Amino acid sequence: MTYNLQRRDFVKQLGLGALSVPFLSGLPSLGYAGTTAKKQRMVVIFSPNGVVPDQFWPEEEGENFTLKPILQPLAPYKDKMLLLHGVSDKIGGDGDSHMRGIGCLLTGTELFPGNIQGGSHTPAGWASGLSIDQEIKNSLQSNPETSTRFGSLEFGVVVPERADTWTRMVYAGANKPIAPIDDPYKMLSKLYGQMKDRESLKSILDPLQADLAKIRSMVSSEDRQLLEEQTTFVREMEQELKQENPAAVGHAVPQLELGVRDTNENMPKISKMQIDLMVNSFKSDFARIASLQYTNSVGQAKMTWLGIDEGHHSLSHEPDSNTEAMDKLTKINTWYAEQVAYLCKKLAETPEPGDNGSMLDHTMVIWTNELGKGSSHTLNDIPFVMIGGGMGYKMGRSLKLGRVAHNRLHLALAQSFGHNLKTFGNPDYCGEGALSLS
Amino acid sequence: MVDSRIHTGIQTHFGVLQLLCAVLFLYAQTAAFADDKLMEKGKAIYAKQCADCHGDRGQGVQSVYAEPLIGDLAVSELADYISAAMPEGEPEACVAEDAEAVAAYIHEEFYSIIARVRNQPPTVDFSRLTVRQYRNSVADLVASFQWGNQFGDEQGLQGRYYKSRNRGKDNIAIERIDHGIDFDFGEAGPDPETIKDEQYVINWSGSVFAPETGYYEFIVDSSNGGELWINGGSEPLIDFRVKSGDQTEYRKDIFLIEGRAYSLRLDLNKAKSDKTVGIKLKWKPPHGPEQLIPPHALSKATFPEWLIVETNFPPDDKSVGYERGVQVSPEWDEATTAAAIEVADKVMARLDSLIKVREFNAETEPKLKQFCVDFASRAFRRPLSDEVKKLYVDQHFEDAPDLAVAVKRSVLLTLKSPRFLFPYIGSSEFDDYDYAAWMALTLWDSIPDASLLKSAAQKKLVDGKDLQSQAERMAKDMRARSKVRAFFHQWLYFDHFSEMDKSDEEHAQFTPELAHDLKSSLELYLNDIFWSEESDFRTLLQADSIFVNPRIAEFYGLPEVKGPLFEKVSFEPDKRSGILTHPYMLAGLAYEDATSPIHRGVFLSRSLLGRFLKPPPIAVSPTPPDLDPSLTTRERTAHQTAPVACKSCHGLINHLGFALENFDEVGRYRTKEGEKTIDSSGSYVSREGDETKFAGAEELSKFLVTSDEAHQAFIEQMFQYLTKQPIQAFGPEMLSQLHDDFQKNNFNMQRMLVQIALKSAHQRRQARQDQLAKTAAN
Q1: Which phi and psi angles does B633 have, rounded to 5°?
Q2: Which residue, of A251, A264, B23, B141, has the greatest Cβ tally within 10 A?
Q3: Separation CA B237–CA B263 (nearest Å)
């Protein structure tokens, strides 16, 4: 029912004064919110089933390190990169590793007991708390200077049409998973529906005026009054629509290729469309927080365009000795790295509106995963690849942290946004406080 | 609960035209015989003593007394009042014969209904769609591309209990109608004999009827998993397949419009890990308490997905007692724009199910174009001329960058078109399609359906061939039922006591839940009588039965009933008189801790006798009972309304309301109030000045069922609710003809429904034809 809810909000906004004030201007922060505070964004990108560690993590620690094959596509951003090896998802409790992997990844807290039975362990339900991206979003939204139209946007790419513990990463609260929008057309309509409507309305004004004139002449003079008034309203609507749309200045509604179906084969296309939409939405300052979820925990993407016919999750169970499988898994993860690189490229190429530097300088892109390694299902050494700026971290480093709880990373993220959290998720894992990344 | 509403209620409910006609004929004679001399005298006195404050034609004087001098008191009553109260501050200046002369003069010139109709004859208002008509029209327009169904009388959902997860027909263990969803099957499950698997599914399907427009919160309470679907769509309203933690309650709201049934599907999945099996399905309707969905709101009949317009419209003008679309405002225009966008988006999203088109290409273009033509012609209630078709359809297929945009533009334009929004535009001769449009608006508040349009196309409406049968068919449709329901809501003042709560110390059992059950009880009663074969208006005021569920039966001391279905039982037959004594009415028209003869009297005056009441000259708050506990409610009321300024209305109101004093503020029968015996004597002075006396509800009801004024008041209010137009605009004979028909047919209300549709349409045709003839002659 998300459609209906959006619909309702939209209609309410529209109904309140749609055409009497410039379209959209009644919405909060369509211009640039928070021109005084330095703008900061965060994007969390999820890909599933762990990585191939020896093809992923650099051997070295510190500022001098060499990128392994999987991370090669990110080479142009090496000096803006922070690699966190040794972060563990220590959350125990109900649910198998894949379920806890995705469900506790951003929430840092246990899953509730429930009826979803994984491959092993006890069955589980939803996470028992909200996720860090939503925590930061709420904090930003509570301040008029950093509040934006949507606050956060949850993108997905080929996420299965079912709601269960494996398909949900972002939570608005305990038992409140948020479904990622994996249909770019639906996202387009969420972001730009009102502007599209504006275009449609413009196109019907002439015939409407023409018919009103004709009908006015058909009815008696006493009956004409209501129609006269109606004609005036239509004329006012025309005046209104002629005015420049404040939200459209400088960034038109992005054009999407039509008719791309939500199928495995279209994954590369959809990925690009979603990233384009995300960058566009940042340009319009629709949100400061975003997530991009590729498939789901235990995702079975078949990357046929890479010449791989097996499902990703099935491959991830193969032992290290199966070099063919390792090769394929490396290719798969490299492809995900390319998607991250595409986002970084788009951000780096776009000057930050109303500020210095590029949008990448104001955005922290964080690529992560529900497992450290697929075949072992370990929740240690969860990949956290951070690229970008604006958080006050010292970038261009490879860190070896040695099994620190990921809750402490979440605290660092929140604090970088000026949200001074002392604990997040399960407080037991927040021991020594926020990780120091500066 | 109702304190300040005595007066605000009056303000919103009275209207100049509403009651104009009821006495048109009764008075014709008295007025005609007015004595010239008396008139001269009255005119002179009026000019000298009255006009300064009331204006030379009784129109009022802004800074002194702005209200016009209008009303429906008899000349004698008016004279009494003037004698006692006018001129203000100096009543002795105009008494006895002088007062009679002034009364006769103003009655004849501008005060009376006849005078007003003569001075300014009402006309049929050129109107836009009301909000209700808009929402209904859109829902029916989109549904016209789908299939339809009727709700039926069987109460409950179709339950299918499967032996396992397999939903094959052969795998059903139990199939039955469940009157409600309130099950605790414990550890054993619904039937351990036939359902033995560790995992299985129970499915309930059918529909739920929405009695009001607004947001409905649905609540599922279950320790098992499952999903709830309301009104179809692509996702469940409540998805509780994932069980997580201790959560067993799930709630979500959805906007529904009144008078329609929405498909409902509820699945319960018993999982291996589930220890017990049980589920409750509740709702919280607008203005209602959270409760199990009652059986009468459930049916096994399913429906296609309705397109519900959620856009918020500004409320319609209700100043004359019924909603009408006589004004357009910027807010309304904006709402039509927002709604057009909303509808266009929703239509585009479901083109696949409406016309089985998934792709926009050259191959599907003809189908898409035909859809746009059908959509526009159904919205405009007539086929498109070539010119209109070009403007609304063809042009967009030529100009738009792609087919999807073309369809969307055409739909948007259609919904913004005056041809849709102003349903009376029609043709100058009032042709067959105008007949169809008129009947659909009158009986359904919607657009004509396929059958009616077919009769119009065959020209069988103007010539009368299909007219009667169409009107009778339409009167049986759910949409007519819904409109009748809405009429009763208004006629019986439901809006004025929707949040009744008296559960204080004295009436701990009179909870919002009981109040809501009583509302259902009254609605079932109205339905039962109106849709019976006799459909006798008099039964409404006389029946001595009531629909009860266990809660009602217990509160009113009736024999126990089983539930959850409401049962019709005998109810204090020697004391009760239909709607007059239904506890919902009695409690609604009362305070928390005392009755209110004024509320009851206002209701009887306006709704049942069609009388005109002015707003009180000053805001008055009722005297609280504890100010002088020795007084009865009757005595207190009489005392408070004793001032002469109150007399012109309260002389009428109080003596009607007093007749119901045997029923307390929660609708129970009583013979004493405190230590004192109840005095339920009352009286009524008709517009002609005839006085009737009665004591108690029974005698009041006997008077009403034989009163021409009461019959005419009912006809007039029903007519105006259905047509949204003043009955006087349909010529001076309309009311008397309908009244004759009503009397000759044993006061059959269903017949009246049909007659109003037919006669009003016929009169419209006649008026347009006369107009054409006149134009031609000139």
Answers
A1: -60, -40
A2: B23
A3: 12
CB contact under 8 A, B255 and A200: no
Instruction: For residue range A244-301, list pLDDT tens digits in order.
Output: 554 544 456 777 777 777 888 899 999 999 999 999 999 989 999 999 999 999 999 9
Cross-chain residue pair A1–B359, CB shorter than 8 Å: no
Smallest CA–CA distance from B344 into chain A, residue: A197
| Reported confidence tier of residue B40, pLDDT bands at 50, 70, 90 | confident
- A205 and A68 belong to one structural domain: no
Domain boundary pick from B380, B406, B423: B423
Domain-located, residue A48? yes
pLDDT digits (tens, 9 = 90+) for B426-476: 888 899 999 999 999 999 999 999 999 999 999 999 999 999 999 999 999
Q: Helix, strand or coil for residue A272? A: helix
Which one of A233, A259, A285 terminates a domain? Answer: A259
Are A202 and A70 in the same domain?
no
Q: Are residues A211 and B388, on separate chains, in Cβ contact within 8 Å?
A: yes
Point out the domain boundary residue: A235, A259, A283.
A259
Contact of B389 with chain A, judged by CB distance below 8 Å, is answered with no
Residues B504-561 have pLDDT tens digits of 778 888 998 999 999 999 999 999 999 999 999 999 999 899 999 999 999 999 999 9
Q: Please state the rounded mean pLDDT for residues B35-63.
A: 86
Is residue B413 within 8 A of residue A204, CB to CB? The reply is yes
Residue B441 counted as domain residue: no
Same domain (yes/no): B269, B203: yes
Cα-Cα-Cα-Cα dihedral sign, residues B235, B236, B238, B244: negative
Domain match, B140 and B173 both: no
pLDDT interval class at B2 (50, 70, 90)? very low
Q: Which residue of B has its CA nearest to A259?
A: B359
| Nearest C-alpha neighbor of B732 from the set B291, B122, B62 | B122
pLDDT of residue A27: 36
ipTM: 0.80
CATH of the domain at A403: 3.40.720.10
* Domain span at A204: 187-259
Question: Can you tell me the distance from the alpha carbon of A393 to that of B424, in angstroms, rounded to the nearest whole number?
Answer: 69
- Which chain B residue lies closest to A124 (C-alpha atoms)? B244
What is this structure's pTM? 0.81
Q: Is B170 on the interface with A (CB under 8 A)?
A: no
Which domain covers residue B37, as residue numbers?
23-119
What residues does A42 pair with on adjacent strands? A289, A364
- DSSP codes of every residue in B644-713: HHHHHHHHHHHHHHGGGTTB-TTS-B-SEETTEEP--EEEEE-TTS-EEEEEHHHHHHHHHHT-HHHHHH
Task: With beta carbons under 8 A apart, name residues in chain A contacting B310.
Answer: 4, 7-8, 11
Tokens of A2: 């998300």
Q: Give the whole-angstrom CA distance, residue A151 versus residue A138.
A: 8
Q: What is the dihedral of CA A7, A10, A12, A17, to 10 degrees?
A: -150
Contacts B425 to A, Cβ<8 Å: 215, 218-219
Rounded CA gap, A133 and A1, in Å? 23
Number of domains composing chain B: 3
Q: Give a yes or no: residue A80 inside a domain.
A: yes
Q: Lowest mean pLDDT of B56-60, B413-417, B641-645, B730-734, name the range.
A: B641-645
